[in-house]
Amino acid sequence: MKKKALLINPYIEDFTAYDLWLKPLGLYKLSYALKKNNFDVSFIDLLDMSHPSIPKKFSKKRENGTGKFYYEYIPKPEILPNIGRRFKRYGIPISSFKEELKKIKNPDAVFITSSIVYWYKGIITTINIIKEILGDIPVVLGGIYPTLYYHHSKNTGADFVVKGNFEEALPPVLEEIFGKKFALDFEIYPDYSILKDKTSMAIQTSKGCPYSCSYCASKKIEPLFFQFPLEYNLKNFENLKNFKIKNIAFYDDALLYNKENHIKIILKEIKKKNFNFSFHTPNGLDPNQIDEELAVLFKETNFKTIRLSVDILNKKVKYENLKEIMKNFFKAGYKEGEIEAYLLIGFLEEKFEEIKEALYDLFNLKIKSKFAYFSPIEGTKIWETLKEKGFVKDGEDPILSNKLLFPYRFKGIKPEELKELKNIQNFLNQKFIF
Fold this sequence. Notes:
By secondary structure, the protein is of the alpha/beta class. It is 35% helix and 18% strand. The strands form 5 sheets. A 6-stranded parallel sheet has the order 11-14-15-16-17-18. Strands 4-1-8-9-10 form a 5-stranded parallel sheet, with helices on both faces. Helix 9 (230-242) packs parallel to helix 10 and helix 11 crosses helix 12 (319-332). The mean pLDDT is 95.
């Protein structure tokens, strides 16, 4: 007799959230793996804005597959400072979630994913409702949050917490729940059949990151860097085509690394097969890897959203180099303002004038700027610096890593200065409206 697994993408609880191709890719892969092990799989996506309970203004997506999440106001956790924003729960109404749970007949276990660590309150809300409706059923929590904050995540109400890749960590948990061994040592693809909203999807052509940036927790999530074989990646794109999914967001941390033997070959194959996708790069690309051939391949294979990780404040990319890189994009056919760049802010001792100057530098290069807000994660190199200066302490509540708190915690940009910088950014970016 088949076992029944219920997969759930949980609520978000935060001051702000936006569907920037936010997909529970790990759950889709888990669905594939469980089905291969003879499970019946059900899926509830609490962030699915195509759900019938969602008002039309939230269910309507932009052409590129992004959009707003439906939300309800909830009390702000007392530990968080007042920052002039109201706290919200993002996702389908709780009454609708309870109705969906009641439709699932006798599941044997529930599997919940997680992403940003300071969203854990939404996971607790999700688990509480599961226990209320389904009773004493094993709940397994995995994803980024327990991988980075394993001991903290044990307080969510989950019966089992999985740290790291589920392919390695989940089999012992399945054996404990079901009393038999399960194997996950095979090629695992995302299971797109469980999707209800097929306007967009995410893909990874690699896992991990070859770099070791001081502020990044990527190495703690995935210690090794590995680029998937071409055959695996092409089959993934074939699957996306078969499900008629148009907008594809790359989740790779280092998409352009080893470009001659990886991304260039992939894009040449996509061009040859004449796939009709629109590609997006929300994670930010290393601009130093953008040569003339790659810019042309981006254009020919329909890269609609290109976001560069410039970090111009710390001179990761020099202005003159960026000028040459932009020539490659313009020569390939991109227009002024079509290329975007992340400006990472929120570090210690940043100066208002430096950030303002960087905004104008990007504008003068015909690049639309986007702020990426620093979020401190325990165990990273920069965490140790912050700890030495007394700004953070080991074991503190991970909700305090919320990206919007940096003007209130660190001696850098003040809240009123951030507001002015955002006004400058909006003023400059509006000049690129086509």
